[in-house]
Design goal:
GO terms for molecular function: glycerophosphodiester phosphodiesterase activity. It comes from Grus americana (Whooping crane). InterPro entries: GP_PDE_dom, PLC-like_Pdiesterase_TIM-brl. With about 525 residues, this protein is α/β, with parallel strands linked by helices. It contains 21 helices and nine strands. Strands 1, 2, 3, 4, 5, 6, 7, 8 and 9 form a nine-stranded mixed beta sheet that branches. Helix 3 runs parallel beside helix 6. The relative contact order is 0.10.
Length: about 525
């Protein structure tokens, strides 16, 4: 088999060394008469599949970063260990993708150089391990975090047009080694099979935009207003969650609603806390070491005031933004205590910001007394009731009677033939399609979706017409003056045609040049 023009022996020797783990020159390899066997072709196909598998997992890893703080909290509840596992995920994924991509590039270069694809057993073992690791990751995702499959579907609305361009480009480049293989193989059946599969794949890719939909394919004058921002427990990337400092930081980010969680102490004082236990966001292990496993509602207000609700933020660094805090902010963090609902309502009234909250835990035997205590504080605070958004479903009718001015927010979609129409809904962003968002908007129903941290996701929901989003990253979304991308349908059509035409011509050139 003669080497194709432009392939030097030293380069081929280096490629053989890396791929086959044998330091043997290309000339000696040729003299030995070694050829790519069917088994070698099978391993190349496996390598190609593993590369695609890891690439798909990389895409998922990037998408789930929006929700990864929830995973960190889940691990902490299970193991009492705080770590930003997103870094571990990205580093491990990058290593797997880089390894499989490097082997694939080596194999393609060897094919262009007319050298045999003799994959070493060590690479074969590592490829099998790579495939098993990624399969385990997908399995774990499906079992423990199934809603992320719906997140992936949402993400395709943001990335679909660009994924199409990238895949077409990658498949076009694949035409060069494919043409080299076809012109050098003596197996007619295999040649026809590969050509048929490749042609069918390219035709499908060329027609794929017919099935790609995105709310951001629209004219500029059709873009809905920018969604309002709801601070998830305040501004948790800039201050300890559910604290007065977090509320003030949220106000600085132009947040219109402070979203939080309310519990009621053993002596009847409503206070802000998300977790059932105090271990993650306070120093309860130090102050009350024998009571760390108790529910937050088992502590009286006097004991709760003894806890430091800020220092954990500097120690655990739940978000990378903690490192950029100023010295004055760090001092303020260490001074934070668990705030009462009364204190928060006073701060919200002064800042002219609304407050939306859950009342936890809803399965508590004294939940009705929790509702009564919370309503009492709200009515006595003097805050305009229209600034209070009530989320809990328990005893909602009682709340409507005692505080009719409070805005009722529902954590569900509207029902057919509903007696009282919904005015506000609060749902996970995975639970509403763009079409439903548009329909609710036309019917004057305010839609708030949570938790939205990444600009790509905010852009999709903005284009869809959502009213507001709950976010951890208010400082990031505040700066967005426009969706990341917005394409008129005519422009998208032109890009589609140009990309497909350029790809087709490049494939013809590859097969003609290597003939």
């Amino acid at each position: 088999m003669a080497d194709p023009p432009g392939c030097c022996h030293p380069c081929a020797t280096c490629l053989l060394c890396l791929y086959s783990c044998h330091w043997i020159t290309a000339k000696k390899e040729k003299r030995k008469g070694l050829r790519t066997t069917k088994c070698d072709c099978s391993w190349f196909l496996f390598l190609f599949c593993v590369f695609l598998f890891t690439l798909v997992w990389l895409y998922f890893a990037i998408i789930i970063l929006n929700d990864f703080h929830n995973f960190n909290e889940f691990i902490f509840k299970q193991r009492k260990l705080w770590l930003d596992w997103s870094l571990v995920l990205l580093i491990a994924t990058a290593m797997l993708v880089t390894y499989s991509a490097t082997l694939l590039v080596l194999a393609l270069c060897l094919q262009l150089c007319g050298q045999p694809l003799k994959l070493h057993w060590l690479h074969k073992t590592l490829l099998i391990l790579t495939a098993l690791v990624v399969a385990a990751a997908f399995t774990g995702l499906g079992i423990k975090w199934a809603e992320e499959w719906r997140s992936a579907r949402v993400s395709l609305q943001a990335t679909g047009p660009f994924l199409h361009i990238g895949i077409v480009g990658g498949m076009t480049l694949l035409a060069w080694p494919l043409a080299s293989f076809i012109y050098h193989t003596r197996n007619t059946g295999l040649m026809l099979f590969l050509l048929l599969v490749y042609c069918m794949a390219m035709i499908a890719l060329y027609l794929a935009p017919l099935g790609i939909t995105s709310p951001c394919i629209m004219e500029e004058n059709q873009l809905p207003p920018k969604p309002a921002l709801v601070g998830h427990r305040g501004a948790p990337m800039l201050a300890p969650e559910n604290t007065i400092m977090s509320l003030h930081k949220a106000v600085d980010c132009d947040v219109q609603v402070f979203e939080t969680d309310v519990m009621v102490s053993a002596d009847g004082v409503p206070f802000l806390m998300h977790d059932e236990e105090l271990t993650r966001t306070t120093n309860v292990q130090v102050v009350f070491p024998k009571r760390t496993a108790l529910n937050s509602t088992a502590f009286n207000w006097t004991d709760l005031q003894k806890l430091d609700a800020g220092s954990w933020f500097l120690e655990q660094r739940p978000f990378p933004t903690v490192q950029s805090l100023s010295a004055s902010d760090r001092n303020q963090v260490t001074e934070q205590r668990i705030p009462s609902l009364q204190q928060v309502l006073e701060a919200a009234k002064q800042s002219n910001i609304s407050i939306m909250f859950d009342l936890r835990p809803e399965n508590h035997s004294d939940y009705q007394s929790f509702v009564n205590a919370t309503l009492k504080v709200i009515l006595q605070s003097g805050i305009p009731l229209q600034q209070v958004l009530w989320l809990p479903d328990g005893f909602r009718e009682q709340v409507k009677q005692q505080a009719p001015g409070v805005q009722q927010v529902y954590g569900r979609k509207r029902l057919q033939n509903e007696k009282e129409p919904l005015l506000h809904v609060n749902l996970p962003y995975q639970d509403m399609s763009s079409e439903e968002i548009r329909q609710y908007r036309q019917d004057n129903i305010s839609v708030n979706l949570y938790v939205v941290n990444q600009p790509w996701l905010f852009s999709v929901l903005w284009c869809s017409g959502v009213s507001s989003v709950t976010t951890n990253a208010c400082q990031v979304l505040k700066e967005m003056k426009h969706p990341i991308w917005l394409l008129p349908s005519s422009t998208y059509l032109m890009i589609w045609i140009v990309v497909d035409c350029v790809s087709f011509l490049a494939i013809l050139w590859a097969f003609f040049l290597l003939k």
